UniProtKB/TrEMBL annotation:
Hydrolase recorded as keyword: yes
Alphabetized UniProt keyword annotations: Hydrolase
Designated name of the protein: Serine phosphatase RsbU (Regulator of sigma subunit)
Top-rank lineage group of the source organism: Bacteria
SUPFAM superfamilies: PP2C-like
Entry's Gene Ontology molecular function annotations: phosphatase activity
Annotated ranges, domain PPM-type phosphatase: 162-377
InterPro entries: Bact_Sigma-Reg, GAF-like_dom_sf, PPM-type-like_dom_sf, PPM-type_phosphatase-like_dom
Length: 379
């Protein structure tokens, strides 16, 4: 290894946005004697990977999947050398895994430097995503519907976190979502979270949700509180659709210091709290869905989280799912699925709930798209 390698951050910033994997591979070969390098990008469903340097196709490397889930580096050694799996994460957003084969096990200093390389690559990939289609194309292992394309492009990410909290969301079916959506934004000690279920099908539902999300963002970015966000979005939808289409929405603003949550319940998403092994539903006064009537007015309710609490929000595609017209998932299997997540981080918990939902459908085609969002408040 060279004593003074060129800082990888500088190399990545100087590179074309679509050439970041090649820059990383060359850096690792030159300065760490890497024998093989692969940048694995997680697919939209976070169940498999797409290699950016190797032949195209799905990669289901079990060690890489464990690394993605645990967010911890892992090293395995054998006669041929050492294989490292390093998580590619940026502000809590899990992008994929960097896989590196070395002639031998790295020492402590080298391992630290390799983790830094992975961190720099993750930030660069996140920044480059808007400048090239290469990474988004790799994420999509099948073609998206136009509605799904719009919804995924509108998302803030799939996870977010720091020492105070970990937040994650998942949309399914990943390649055919319509009007279900989630949004979030962090500003100091305030975290805003919204979960939406736009009425209708296909592009009609996606465009409805896009209008609502952007109206709430517009209000939020001008300093508006939850009531003003809900009312502006409702007015925008009613002006466009005349009450014919609406968006059931739950708006939350979490105080990351005191745990107080301001809430506007404008429709069907359900909110639950996991505390000490028990799960209970937060009972809120359900107000009118956004856009149902002109000049609708909304009120804020409050509840409080305790340190270590888990907050879960699911759309009606989760809690009201009833394949064959039978018992709903919310009535029979949702709380069982949630209990399975007790020892998992939020980023894994959303996948566990969605797997439970798929099992509940038992092979039948879901009639609705679905959102699960999970927040762990660490304080």
């Amino acid at each position: 290894m060279s004593d003074h390698p060129v800082p990888i951050g500088a190399l990545l910033r100087a590179a074309a946005p679509d050439r970041l994997p090649e820059v990383i591979a060359e850096h690792l070969r030159r300065h760490f004697a890497a024998e093989q390098v692969e940048v694995l990008v997680a697919d939209l469903a976070l169940r498999q990977f797409a290699p950016l340097l190797g032949p195209p196709g799905a990669d289901t490397d079990p060690a890489a999947l464990r690394c993605l889930g645990s967010q911890q580096p892992a090293t395995t050694t054998g006669p041929a050398g050492a294989r490292l799996h390093l998580p590619l994460s940026c502000w809590g957003e899990r992008l994929g895994v960097l896989r590196v084969d070395l002639p031998g096990r790295p020492d402590t200093e080298q391992a630290d430097q390799l983790r830094l390389v992975a961190d720099e690559l993750a930030v660069a990939l996140r920044a480059a995503d808007r400048m090239t289609d290469r990474y988004r194309k790799a994420q999509c292992l099948q073609r998206l519907t136009m509605a799904a394309e719009l919804q995924w492009d509108l998302l803030p990410g799939r996870s977010l976190g720091d020492e105070r909290f970990l937040l994650a969301g998942q949309l399914e079916p990943a390649y055919e979502v319509r009007g279900d959506h989630f949004d979030w934004a962090l500003a100091g000690d305030r975290l805003t979270l919204t979960v939406l279920n736009g009425a209708g099908e296909g592009m009609d539902a996606a465009l409805l949700t896009a209008t609502a999300v952007n109206a709430m963002r517009n209000a939020r970015r001008c300093g508006a509180d939850l009531v003003e966000q809900a009312e502006l979005a409702s007015d925008a939808l009613h002006s466009r659709y005349g009450g014919g289409l609406h968006a059931a929405t739950l708006l939350l603003e979490i105080d990351l210091v005191g745990g107080w949550v301001d809430a506007v319940d404008a429709g069907s998403p359900h909110c639950m709290i996991g505390r000490g092994g028990e799960i209970s539903q937060v009972r809120l006064e359900q107000q009118l869905p956004l856009g149902m009537f002109g000049e609708a007015r909304y009120e804020i309710e409050r509840f409080r989280l305790e340190p270590g609490d888990r907050l879960l929000v699911v759309s009606d595609g989760v809690h009201a799912a009833a394949p064959g017209g039978g018992t709903t998932f919310g009535e029979s299997a949702l709380f069982t699925a949630l209990r399975r997540t007790r020892l998992q981080p939020a980023t894994e918990a959303v996948g566990t709930v969605m797997r439970g939902l798929r099992e509940f459908h038992a092979g039948s085609e879901p009639e609705d798209d679905a959102v699960t969002v999970c927040l762990d408040w660490r304080r």
